[in-house]
Specification:
Elements (H helix, E strand, L loop, with lengths): L8 H14 L4 E4 H8 L8 E6 L5 H9 L4 E3 L2 E3 L6 E3 L16 E5 L2 E5 L2 H15 L2 H13 L4 H11 L2 H19 L13
Parallel strand pairs: 2-5
Antiparallel strand pairs: 1-2, 3-4, 4-5, 6-7
Helix pairs in contact: 2-4, 4-5, 4-6, 5-7, 6-7
């Protein structure tokens, strides 16, 4: 599979994952790109984070990425044919203090992708909200719940274990508000100038 100027994030992520597997590199799509796919594009990400789950030499990564036209620039891989770039954040694969992460293999319109589950992608976004008060990550976590199947009891247990039971309740309230707005869209009003 090639990456072109018209390739969307899903196609690009599948192509990178395929190239890595062909070179014997085990990696899991995570971060913003994963969230973007689970929100069905409501959240846009230009970077693709792959966490290595097995040994890989720099030369292997360079060779795998070169097959798609990517070259290494500092800590990322860039390609002139696409706005998407690839990074390999330091592992291990974990969300907060939870290291027992079980990636899923999902069938997409472009092929198979090894990635975080919807529940883990939601937790990944919540970790940024919990630890750095990143409000955008809170919103993205809500979008993931609205557009994918997230196991909220597991998210609650993890949140409590991480010491953020109060922030989980704030997240849950945002989910409930989003669900109410979707059931009654006419009730939502934006403050400001009245309609004319």
């Amino acid at each position: 599979m090639r990456i072109t100027e018209r390739s969307g994030l899903g196609a690009a992520a599948v192509a990178v994952g395929d190239a890595l597997r062909r070179h014997g590199i085990k990696a899991v799509l995570s971060g913003g790109a994963c969230a973007s796919l689970y929100t069905r594009g409501a959240f846009q990400s230009a970077d693709m984070d792959f966490i290595l789950t097995g040994p890989a030499k720099q030369s292997q990564l360079d060779a795998a990425m070169a097959t798609l036209g990517f070259t290494r620039k500092g800590d990322r891989y860039v390609c002139s044919r696409t706005r998407f770039y690839v990074e390999f954040p330091r592992g291990p694969l974990a969300i907060g203090n939870d290291y027992d992460i079980r990636p899923v293999t999902r069938r997409t319109p472009h092929g198979l992708a090894v990635m975080l589950s919807p529940t883990d992608s939601c937790r990944d976004r919540l970790a940024a909200f919990y630890h750095w008060n990143d409000r955008q990550s809170l919103q993205v976590a809500v979008w993931i719940v609205r557009r994918s199947q997230v196991h909220l009891p597991a998210v609650r247990r993890w949140s409590v274990a991480e010491g953020f039971a109060d922030r989980f309740e704030e997240f849950l309230a945002e989910v409930k508000r989003a669900r109410a707005r979707s059931k009654h869209p006419g009730r939502r009003r934006v403050a400001g100038r009245p309609r004319t």
